[in-house]
């Protein structure tokens, strides 16, 4: 998903209590590396965990349209506008696949949206940051979509079939997003000193929030046993810290290629570990943003709720159309 920076699950979704619910056939499928499909037997905790994760993922996709949509009319050329529009449209598509995949677990997307709108469900905190300059669109593509890919590639092998299959296409599109972000920053970094400074400023502001997208360390009091349970169920394959390290290792050489600096003086290659060392992430800010006190939380939700309200006539028209055709089918059956 976009990140693992969400509230921990409800108590009933945790380890011991739910392991007892597992049937032998469910465990067999998991142990043999198979896929659980919608009609298969599954523990209630597994179903609830997936609904929560897929809904939060879907919400992140559609809320994530806002910070970049903000720049469509101001992108510096027709080519950049067309690319950005395609990207924002992709995110709407990702939301669509994921809401549809969540519905295979017996929920209604209208209910999931209600839960987003009244705050019962969350979206990734990264989208509560503003896009102040055009370079921010580059930094989001390069770092935020880059971090999303690191999170999402393992989900292509997730144990729940509809989620895993949706992720295959999503990941292909996310790779394009990451590449376009890199391309924007590359152009700016090679431009005038002012353009390069703008690119550097965007990277300085987005680096730490991107690392926070992976969530707090898994072993802390905040993890609530969530990662361990999700791993046992084959939903999650790597811990938050492993994913974060993978992202850092992948990104440092790319920053060198861009000629930009990542704002952490401790970033050095550690031969022994085979990874880059870095300053530990300070999660104080993340918890503030999750608690609703990020720079754009209110604006994002107000915009989302407004868009939902403005789109009511489309949903009403679709329902009226469905209702108009339903009696005809029933009448036909009655006459036969
Ligand atoms: Fe996406
Ligand atoms: Fe994306």
Automatic annotation (TrEMBL):
Designated name of the protein: Ring-1,2-phenylacetyl-CoA epoxidase subunit PaaA
Keyword Chaperone: no
Pfam families: PaaA_PaaC (PF05138)
A GO MF term: phenylacetyl-CoA 1,2-epoxidase activity
Cellular component GO terms held in the UniProt record: cytosol
Signal peptide start-end: none
Entry superkingdom: Bacteria
Keyword Oxidoreductase applies: yes
């Amino acid at each position: 998903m976009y990140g693992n920076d969400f509230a921990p699950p409800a108590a009933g979704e945790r380890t011991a209590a739910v392991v007892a619910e597992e049937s032998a056939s469910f465990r067999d499928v998991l142990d043999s590396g198979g896929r659980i499909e919608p009609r298969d037997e599954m523990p209630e905790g597994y179903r609830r965990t997936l609904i929560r994760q897929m809904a939060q993922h879907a919400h992140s996709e559609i809320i994530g349209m806002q910070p970049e949509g903000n720049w469509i009319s101001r992108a510096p050329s027709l080519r950049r506008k067309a690319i950005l529009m395609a990207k924002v449209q992709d995110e709407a598509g990702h939301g669509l696949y994921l809401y549809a995949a969540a519905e295979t677990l017996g929920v209604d997307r209208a209910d999931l949206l209600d839960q987003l709108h009244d705050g019962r469900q969350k979206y990734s905190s990264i989208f509560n940051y503003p896009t102040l300059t055009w370079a921010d669109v580059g930094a989001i593509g390069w770092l935020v979509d880059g971090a999303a890919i690191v999170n999402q590639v393992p989900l292509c092998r997730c144990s729940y079939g509809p989620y895993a299959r949706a992720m295959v296409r999503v990941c292909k599109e996310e790779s394009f997003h990451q590449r376009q972000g890199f391309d924007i920053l590359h152009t700016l970094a090679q431009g005038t000193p002012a353009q390069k400074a703008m690119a550097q400023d965007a990277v300085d502001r987005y680096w730490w929030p991107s690392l926070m997208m992976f969530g707090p360390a898994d072993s802390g009091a905040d993890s609530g046993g969530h990662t361990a349970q999700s791993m046992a169920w084959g939903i999650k394959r790597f811990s938050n810290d492993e994913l974060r390290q993978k992202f850092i290792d992948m990104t440092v050489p790319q920053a060198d290629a861009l000629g930009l600096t990542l704002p952490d003086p401790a970033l050095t290659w550690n031969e022994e570990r085979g990874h880059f060392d870095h300053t530990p992430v300070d999660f104080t800010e993340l918890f503030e943003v999750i608690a609703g006190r990020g720079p754009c939380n209110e604006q994002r939700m107000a915009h989302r709720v407004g868009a939902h309200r403005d789109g009511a006539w489309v949903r009403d028209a679709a329902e009226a159309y469905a209702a108009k055709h339903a009696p005809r089918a029933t009448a036909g059956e009655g006459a036969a």
